[in-house]
Design brief:
By secondary structure, the protein is α/β, with parallel strands linked by helices. It is 50% helix and 15% strand.
Length: 267
């Protein structure tokens, strides 16, 4: 990987966007590398959570405009070719959205365009109060095409219309107020502590039950209610007769951490 760094620590895959001179703007190479990492993490049973963060004090400044200009030249005006390039980011953001692991985004510094999209598909978004967040695409003559459904899903249509149609910039506190972020930190040290606390909470949750829960949550978007309730009943029954529920119940009765928790796991 040339544009991102990864490491696994206590069953958590830490993914750092690593183009600090470009404020971690999304080049085609970075999108491809992120796709590969997310795909690998999705199929790796040893990974329980995935953290997305940026190097150099910035999360992600959106699309790399220089790379976009190169793509435009390479496509020589071919609309289908440009559409395919743009759709590639949609494929990435959908993969993050659908990732069966719990995804945490740590947003600070510049958080624009596609960076906002990544924040909106994270299960948990932790924001620095001083973060600068916005959808500047319309000011560049472009629509924020691939991220619109996910921004609407996170903050609702009204707030998404305001952000997308004005190009306004908001800070982390406002992102927290409108529901884009789930927790707010006053500075970098507090943000690190907030991430540590969040990961500790995730480690308390049973891995298979967490994956099942996330799948049911995502299914609420397009599954009829009765079908979803039927599916939920079947999955609950399977979980209730499985190893995790047996261990979780025994651990509760014995007043000890379950074998999947960070306090009772062999690293």
């Amino acid at each position: 990987m040339e544009t991102i760094e990864t490491r696994v620590e206590k069953s958590v895959l830490q993914v750092r966007l690593n183009r600090p001179k470009a404020r971690n703007a999304l080049s085609r190479q970075m999108v491809a590398e992120l796709q590969e990492v997310v795909a690998q993490a999705s199929g790796d049973d040893s990974v329980r959570a995935l953290v997305l963060r940026g190097a150099g004090g910035h999360f992600c400044a959106g699309a790399d405009l220089a790379d976009m200009a190169s793509a435009r030249m390479e496509s020589a005006g071919d609309v289908d070719a440009m559409a395919a390039i743009n759709r590639t980011f949609g494929t990435l953001i959908s993969a993050v959205h659908d990732c069966p692991k719990t995804v945490v985004a740590v947003v600070e510094g510049s958080v624009f365009g596609g960076g906002v999209g990544l924040a909106c598909v994270a299960d948990v978004c932790l924001a620095s109060r001083e973060a600068k967040i916005g959808l500047p695409e319309v000011t560049l003559g472009l629509p924020p095409a691939q991220i619109i459904p996910f921004v609407v899903g996170r903050v609702g249509l009204s707030q998404a219309r305001h952000l997308a149609l004005t190009g306004a910039r908001i800070d982390g506190a406002e992102a927290f107020r409108i529901g884009l972020a789930h927790a707010l930190a006053d500075d970098g040290e507090a943000l690190d502590q907030l991430l540590e606390q969040t990961l500790a909470q995730i480690q308390r949750c049973a891995p298979q039950a967490s994956r099942m829960t996330k799948s049911l949550l995502l299914a609420t978007a397009d599954t009829p209610l009765n079908d979803l309730l039927d599916r939920g009943a079947r999955e609950f029954a399977a979980a209730a007769t499985g190893e995790e529920a047996t261990e979780g119940t025994q651990a509760f009765l014995q007043k000890r951490p379950p074998n999947w928790s960070s306090g009772n796991r062999k690293q």
